[in-house]
Structures are given as C-alpha cells and as structure tokens.
Specification:
- The chain contains 10 helices and 6 strands.
- It has 229 residues and is α/β, with parallel strands linked by helices.
- The chain folds into 2 domains: 139 residues, Rossmann fold (3-Layer(aba) Sandwich), CATH 3.40.50.2300; 67 residues, Arc Repressor Mutant, subunit A (Orthogonal Bundle), CATH 1.10.10.
- It has a 6-stranded parallel β-sheet with strand order 2-1-3-4-5-6, sandwiched between helices.
- α4 links the parallel β3 and β4.
- 38% of the residues are buried.
C-alpha cells in the first residue's frame, strides 16, 4: 500500500494527519481487542484487520469478556467497544474499560446521535467510529488512535432551541425517545446520561409543553411540530 506523507501539519486536514500517523507506525503489529455482539460483523472486521491491517485482534461479544481479555495484557494499542452490546449500559461500560488503563478505548456504533461525541470524550474515550465505515477506513483510524490521535465520526445536529418548540437539544432527543415508548433508564443508557438527569429533562419537557404526563407530552410536542411546518 502506498502511503503519501505530508509536511503540512494542520488541524484543518484530518485526512493528512491520519495518513501521517498511519505511515509512522505502519511497521508495527498492533494489539487490538474488538468487542461486538454481532458475531458475523465482528468476525469479518477482525479477520480483515488481522490479514491486511497488520494487527493482532482478539474478540469478545460482551463487555465482561472484553475486560477479561484486556486484563491479561500489560498494555494494548487499541480497544474497540460496540456501544450497544451486553454489559455496556450506555457509556458506563466505556468508563469501566478506561479505568483499567490498558490502552486507548474507542466506541463503534451503527447509530451516532447528536451529542454522542462529547459524551464519549467525557467518559474517557478517544474515538467514536461508525459501522458504516469501510474496513480499510477502520484500519487507518485504529492506527492513528494507537499513535496518540483521536477520531470522532461526524454526527447529525439538531436545530437550535428556537426551532424545536422551546425544547433544548437534549430535551428534543429525550422527547423523541419518549414518543418511541422508551423509559427513563433506557433513554439514559442510549444518551450516556444518569437516570436522574433524564428525569430532570422529562420534568423540564412537561413544564415547557404544559403536559400532565408522557402521553400528553408527546401529543403536545407533535402538535407544536405540525404548527411549525
């Protein structure tokens, strides 16, 4: 593989930065743990990284097994955790893995939500990767992370509060999840927030919408959305 190097080190050219990091550690076999409960996806990515990415990859299908694997090493180059696999409980699992101090930890997910990058950073993660990325892209990103950089996949943004019926961005995400029948604990796990914080957002939503309960809040929110079209 031909890797082009560049001497223009700026924050405005992330592709150039990734290529440079990749080139500087190209000769090193990385030690990687990748955990995902989608076994087929896990095997395909792990096999590709092992065969063509110059990486030694060990796999797990849940957080507990991933932590047991990590505990057997003094230091790993990268640890990749699926956001939705068993044991993660939102970003609590990320914090637990980071606390082991076995290497940089990144999150892999098929559903990147607004605000997720900040939540991952706060939990100690160094990367947020999309499952829509190609295996070659993942290999490049993992090598850059192993060299000490961070990578956070671009994410959708929500309109400002003035455009969402008076609700904040977090509240807008919460009311969408309430409309899907999700309870506070599940919402907290999805957003990486404590359940008590979710309850505060729900109370704020009720107050702003003048709602009596969750069903009423969804009804009023939808009415406001229609009136804004």
């Amino acid at each position: 593989m031909n890797v082009q190097m560049t001497s223009d080190k700026t924050d405005h050219n992330p592709a150039a930065s990734l290529n440079e990091s990749f080139g500087q550690i190209l000769g090193k076999t990385l030690r990687v743990i990748m955990a995902d409960d989608h076994v087929l996806v896990l095997e395909v990515i792990a096999n590709m990284l092992s065969a063509r990415g110059n990486m030694h990859v060990e796999t797990a299908t849940n957080l507990d097994d991933a932590m047991k694997l990590a505990a057997g090493y003094d230091r790993l180059d990268v640890i990749v955790l699926d956001y939705d696999m068993p044991g993660m409980n939102g970003l609590e699992g990320l914090s637990r893995m980071v606390a082991l101090h076995k290497g940089p930890v990144a999150i892999l997910t098929g559903n990147i939500l607004p605000g997720m990058s900040d939540a991952v950073r706060m939990a100690g993660g160094v990367g947020l990767m999309s499952k829509s990325s190609s295996a070659a892209e993942l290999a490049l990103i993992l090598r850059a992370i192993a060299f000490g950089t961070t990578h956070f996949h671009s994410q959708p943004s929500l309109p400002d509060e003035a455009d969402t019926g008076g609700l904040s961005k977090v509240e807008s995400r919460v009311i969408v999840m309430i409309s899907k029948g999700m309870q506070n604990k599940s919402i907290g796990a999805e957003l990486g927030l404590p359940e008590t914080t979710v309850k505060m957002h729900v109370r704020s939503i009720f107050k702003k919408l003048g709602a009596k309960n969750r069903t009423d809040a969804v009804r009023l929110w939808k009415l406001r959305a229609v009136s804004m079209i």
